[in-house]
């Protein structure tokens, strides 16, 4: 037996003969022989890996034709895989044999066989159903089966993480890094294990790993599976890992954005706090601090808005996302990470700066002046004779994203002594940007008529629905839908902020929604108003109470 332990380096035939002789170590004699040879076997496996990692899979099979049979047999020997680091070394050897780009049916079949071996090595359920000797072996080590497999997975993950991180310094790949094909193979092997908590460190290490190749080295299946598990809350990942996932795999970012839209559109919004909570939880606003992600998410939102004809729910989601993004951006700007132009590269920067300004960071008495400044800049841009339809759409979407300023404009028209034309023009542009100047003049005239009517009634302490009938008629009679939207906005604010409006709010809202099918639009305006009051810290409980009553009525 002593002579048997002295073997030449990389003698595959010797070790294959031994593996055949041992089988699954079912007799006492074979178990003793396995134990005697385990140190030499582990050294052999380590030398094998050091040799294989410098070859591609085709060359490895050609040079060592017996390697597949040997590894396959050793993977089923409980004494071998339970010894020290043999488990990890076997796995790395299998990774080296995996073809990242299989060219024929033989390589495809080999890949499938390797995946099954990896699943076998890491799956306790398969081992639990193995021969009774496995349980006996584990018990002899002083472990329960659950403890043994738990520690085994932890150790393997720890070894892989150490090896991958050991080839990087400050995020840069150094010489001697793990070959891209092997990293790709490891990402594939993680597929059946993604939701195991013990595997999370390996997932994050892979997501943060960047080799020297300009091409993506991780499997697209792996990236899709990790993103799907993250969206379904099956796994938790660090912010840096999620950011890296979305930066390196555009489909995952698109799916994450559409997932949030679907999630929010499918529920009935009762408060913007609820919407904000869902969006924050998605990690999109935080990830959007990277300009590339912000621009992509913004483009997806814009397309969704156009495809849904500007539905109020989608518009509200976009506006809340923008508010949350601005909060993150303000914190990031303290570190001066990215210039503002990186987020809005094609927009007039003074307009961007004006829209980014948080309303509640300045006194309410300054709002109308700031809104007039915004309106004048937008008007100068859209009335430029050289502006294209696509540029016009970009200006409109930028303004629409910062809808809080538009809501304040509609509110200021009724609550403050302002020059109305600039604010009315801004609202008219928001509700129909594609109109020509003559059409916008007509819209302005109709909006001004409604505004004058409401101002005349604003201080009245006693009102009836009939007193507002003229404004309602302007909604139902005009063929211009955008005038109807603008009028609805003004009417809703009148009901909320005038003392007489409070008295008839419920009856009048019922009249609007029954005759014009504007319940979703009114609901959106109401929840935005309640959110703005709460954000501003206003002690206007009467208005908040009225908003809640109106929302309950719309829910019936």
Automatic annotation (TrEMBL):
GO terms under cellular component: Fanconi anaemia nuclear complex
Stretches that traverse the bilayer: none
Pfam family, one: Fanconi_C
The organism's place on the tree of life at top rank: Eukaryota
InterPro entries in alphabetical order: FANCC (IPR000686)
GO BP terms, alphabetized: cellular response to oxidative stress; interstrand cross-link repair; nucleotide-excision repair
Name this polypeptide is given: FANCC protein
Source taxonomy: Eukaryota, Metazoa, Chordata, Craniata, Vertebrata
Gene name of this polypeptide: Fancc
């Amino acid at each position: 037996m002593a002579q048997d332990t002295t073997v030449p380096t990389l003698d595959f035939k010797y070790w294959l003969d031994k593996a055949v002789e041992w089988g699954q170590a079912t007799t006492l004699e074979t178990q003793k022989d396995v134990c005697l040879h385990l140190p030499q076997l582990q050294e052999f496996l380590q030398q094998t890996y050091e040799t294989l990692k410098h070859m591609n899979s085709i060359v490895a099979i050609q040079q060592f034709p017996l390697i597949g049979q040997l590894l396959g047999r050793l993977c089923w020997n409980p004494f071998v895989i339970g010894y020290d680091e043999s488990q990890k070394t076997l796995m790395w050897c299998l990774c080296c044999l995996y073809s990242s780009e299989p060219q024929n049916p033989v390589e495809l079949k080999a890949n499938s066989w390797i995946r099954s071996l990896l699943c076998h090595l890491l799956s306790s359920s398969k081992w639990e159903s193995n021969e009774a000797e496995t349980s006996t072996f584990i018990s002899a080590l002083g472990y329960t089966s659950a403890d043994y497999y738990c520690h085994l997975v932890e150790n393997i993950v720890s070894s892989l993480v150490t090896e991958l991180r050991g080839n990087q310094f400050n995020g840069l790949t150094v010489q001697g890094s793990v070959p891209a094909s092997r990293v790709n193979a490891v990402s594939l092997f993680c597929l059946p294990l993604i939701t195991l908590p013990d595997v999370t460190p390996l997932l994050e290490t892979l997501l943060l790993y960047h080799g020297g190749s300009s091409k993506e080295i991780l499997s697209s299946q792996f990236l899709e599976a990790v993103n799907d598990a993250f969206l379904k809350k099956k796994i938790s990942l660090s912010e840096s890992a999620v950011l890296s996932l979305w930066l390196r795999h555009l489909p995952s970012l698109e799916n994450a954005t559409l997932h949030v839209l679907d999630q929010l559109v499918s529920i009935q919004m009762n408060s913007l706090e609820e919407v904000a909570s869902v969006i924050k939880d998605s990690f999109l606003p935080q990830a959007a601090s990277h300009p590339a992600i912000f621009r992509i998410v913004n483009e997806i939102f814009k397309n969704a808005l156009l495809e849904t004809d500007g539905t109020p729910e989608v518009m509200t989601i976009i506006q809340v996302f923008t508010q949350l993004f601005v909060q993150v951006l303000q914190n990031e700007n303290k570190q001066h990470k990215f210039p503002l132009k990186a987020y809005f590269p094609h927009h007039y920067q003074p307009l961007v700066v004006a829209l980014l300004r948080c309303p509640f960071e300045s006194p309410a008495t300054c709002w109308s002046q700031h809104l007039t400044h915004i309106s004048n800049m937008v008007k100068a841009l859209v009335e430029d004779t050289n502006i294209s339809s696509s540029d016009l759409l970009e200006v409109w979407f930028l303004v629409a994203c910062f809808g809080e300023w538009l809501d304040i404009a509609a509110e200021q028209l009724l609550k403050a002594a302002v020059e109305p034309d600039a604010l009315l023009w801004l609202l008219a542009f928001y509700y129909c940007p594609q109109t020509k100047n003559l059409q916008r003049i007509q819209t302005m005239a109709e909006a001004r008529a409604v505004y004058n009517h409401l101002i005349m009634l604003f201080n009245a302490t006693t009102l009836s629905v009939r007193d507002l009938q003229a404004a309602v008629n302007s909604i139902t009679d005009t063929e211009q839908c955008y005038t109807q939207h603008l009028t609805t906005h003004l009417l809703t604010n009148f009901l909320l902020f005038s003392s007489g409006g409070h008295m008839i709010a419920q009856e009048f809202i019922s009249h609007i929604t029954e005759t014009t099918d504007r319940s979703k639009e009114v609901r959106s305006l109401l929840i935005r108003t309640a959110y703005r009051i709460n954000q501003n810290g206003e002690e206007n409980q009467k208005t908040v109470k009225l908003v809640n009553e109106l929302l309950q009525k719309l829910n019936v």
